[in-house]
Amino acid sequence: MTSKAASPTKTGLIPMMIFWFAVMGLLYVLMTHYLKPKQAQVLANGDLVINRSQDGHFYTAGIINGKEVKFMVDTGASLVSVSEKFAQKAFILGGVPTTFKTANGDRRGRVVEGVGVSVGPVNVTNVKVGVGLSLGNEDEALLGQSFLSKFDISMNKNQMVLRSR
């Protein structure tokens, strides 16, 4: 006589799958929160403070032409730079065609003047923006000297401090 008992591999499979999906979902939520760029902190004297991330770069949340963006601060970049896709979404239109000299070679793009850029409570209204950058995500941008030149920049341990001139 044989009795049909449920196989241990079949009965344990569904709870195990549920467990691992829950673990992966929790990790996804935590990593999404952890990797989201933080807003620049504002000190009592009005200085903006941007913390260094785990990868050694400085990232901050910001706004270009009313659209949210994740900035990577690049003190060596001449311009605030965005992708063509982001420029379309933010209605950054027109501009002067140009060729950008980048670490990855020459890249065709355009320069648009008079764009509004905000980091924290600081809004600069007449910023030159380079359009044609290609980062990993369309909502990522470089925060270059066309914005940063309005500030005195200092480093303090793992923080970058921007003080209005």
Automatic annotation (TrEMBL):
It comes from the Bacteria. Keywords: Hydrolase, Membrane, Protease, Transmembrane, Transmembrane helix. PROSITE patterns: ASP_PROTEASE (PS00141). GO terms for biological process: proteolysis. The chain crosses the membrane at residues 12-31. One of its GO terms (molecular function) is aspartic-type endopeptidase activity. This is Aspartyl protease-like. InterPro entries: Aspartic_peptidase_AS, Clan_AA_Asp_peptidase_C, Peptidase_aspartic_dom_sf, Retropepsin-like_bacterial. Pfam families: gag-asp_proteas.
